[in-house]
Write a structure and sequence with these properties.
single chain; alpha+beta; DNA-binding; DNA-binding transcription factor activity, RNA polymerase II-specific; 3 domains; metal-binding; zinc-finger; two-stranded antiparallel sheet; Double Stranded RNA Binding Domain; 7 helices
């Protein structure tokens, strides 16, 4: 494994890139391109035995498993809030510090989260994302993903109190107010 990792690392110094034939996005490692291509092929090699949902990478699958176990092994040093993913306390810390390290190169607006910057950047391009089932268009891919749950009836947000599940975190959080 160490030899393989070193070999992969050496490619970053060659300047050689591997481009996705579907969208043109470039990667410095062929293995990263292969994982990326699963987005286009919708190939999901990692099924969850608990709920049947499948995932494109083992990392995403393992993160998903924490939903079922309810385990939250990572915590905020400032307030003690716990999280299921290792990156969440770092992101959450920004709610305490007000830090916004991600700047839009087009307009200079700053964001606390990279995902918010990514969403924002589409406001400059005018690019839209269409639902493959009904054709409805959205300005943000995350909005499309939430919309697609209407068609799949996928409910990712289960309530630990009563067992009811919800399609969006917003609806789930509203539901939590009744408990």
């Amino acid at each position: 494994r160490d030899t393989s990792a070193l070999t992969q690392h050496r490619f970053t110094h060659t300047g050689q890139t591997f481009s996705c034939p579907d969208c043109g996005k470039s990667f410095s490692h062929i293995c990263t391109l292969r994982v990326h291509c699963r987005i286009h092929t919708r190939e999901k090699l990692f099924p969850c035995a608990e709920c049947g949902k499948s995932f494109t990478t083992s990392t995403i699958y393992l993160q998903h498993q924490l939903i079922h176990s309810g385990e939250k092994p990572y915590s905020c040093a400032h307030c003690g809030k716990t999280f299921s993913r290792s990156s969440y306390p770092t992101q959450h810390r920004r709610t305490h510090t007000g830090e916004k390290p991600f700047a839009c190169p087009d307009c200079g607006k700053n964001f606390s989260y990279r995902s918010r910057l990514t969403q924002h950047r589409f406001t400059h391009t005018g690019e839209t994302f269409s639902c493959p089932d009904c054709g409805k268009s959205f300005s943000h891919i995350c909005t499309l993903r939430v919309h697609c749950r209407i068609h799949t009836r996928e409910k990712l947000f289960p309530c630990a109190e009563c067992g009811k599940s919800f399609t969006t975190s917003t609806i789930y959080l509203q539901h939590q107010l009744i408990h």
